[in-house]
Specification:
The chain has 245 residues and is α/β, with parallel strands linked by helices. It has helices at 12-16, 23-32, 81-87, 110-118, 133-136, 195-217, 222-225, 233-242, and strands at 44-45, 52-63, 94-98, 123-126, 129-130, 142-145, 147-148, 158-163, 167-169, 172-174, 179-183, 186-190. It is built from eight helices and twelve strands.
Length: 245
């Protein structure tokens, strides 16, 4: 019987702190904190308007070798690790997949994504493709993909190999349980040990940008309000009081 390790999840309180922090803000602040490669470059938003934040389940694919992995979509299904990655799903989880950048094999289809959604999964970040996109885009979870394909997961050149291990997702290192922030700009990996610090920095950043945006919309001077200057800071502090920040 196949068994896979679950992940250690951050608290719901910590996840909630990222509700108003965008992927762009997270990537910029992580860069200042020394993490240069937090953005998962490659997978694009296939469900525009979705924003998700949650811990990462991980799934790793490897090049297929027929003596290791059986042929066929439904041969010995309980040996297929892409299913077991989803068996670990708890409400609020994301699945992050190293699919080798393949444009020919669909990691999941609408049945697997329907199961994932039913277990509370909220997003899939895949360095590769899914199939059944016309049905899958409306199931519920946000989708960040390299593309779509009609082929099932082992139809061509790869096989699922490991669950909840560190992976290389499109050139970015992802550990199981890292926090993912994904929106229309893409997906960003928040190392769990930096999450509390980033949440504090990101909230401050989001607040002064909201203030500066209002000032710029009113015709304010870009040189004064973006980035926020020391001269404009008293205005910002007063704005925070009036807005209950």
């Amino acid at each position: 019987m196949v068994q896979t390790n679950d992940i250690e999840r951050p608290s719901k309180e910590l996840i909630a702190k990222f509700e108003h922090i965008s992927a762009a803000t997270a990537a910029g602040d992580l860069n200042k904190m020394g993490i240069r490669n937090a953005f998962i470059q490659g997978p694009l938003p296939f469900t525009p308007g979705k924003k998700v934040v949650g811990p990462a389940l991980t799934l790793q694919f490897m090049p297929k070798r027929e003596d290791v992995y059986p042929e066929g979509e439904y041969v010995e299904p309980e040996t297929q690790l892409h299913r077991h990655a989803l068996y670990n799903t708890q409400p609020g989880d994301l699945i992050v997949v190293d699919a080798l950048g393949s444009m020919t094999s669909g990691v999941f289809g609408n049945m697997m994504l329907t199961y994932f959604h039913g277990q509370g999964g909220i997003g899939a970040i895949i360095d590769g493709c899914i199939r059944d996109y016309p049905e899958s885009k409306d199931i519920g979870p946000g989708l960040w993909l390299k593309g779509v394909t009609p082929n099932f997961h082992t139809q061509t050149e790869m096989m699922p190999f490991a669950v909840n291990v560190p992976i290389n997702c499109s050139g970015t290192f992802v550990k199981p349980g890292d926090i993912i922030i994904a929106d229309d700009d893409g997906a960003v990996v928040v190392p769990i040990q930096l999450a509390e610090e980033l949440a504090e920095k990101g909230q401050v950043h989001a607040e002064w940008e909201e203030f500066s945006r209002e000032k710029l919309e009113q015709g304010g001077d870009l040189r004064r309000y973006y980035p926020l200057t020391d001269e404009a800071r008293p205005e910002y502090e007063e704005w925070k009081k009036t807005h209950g920040k």
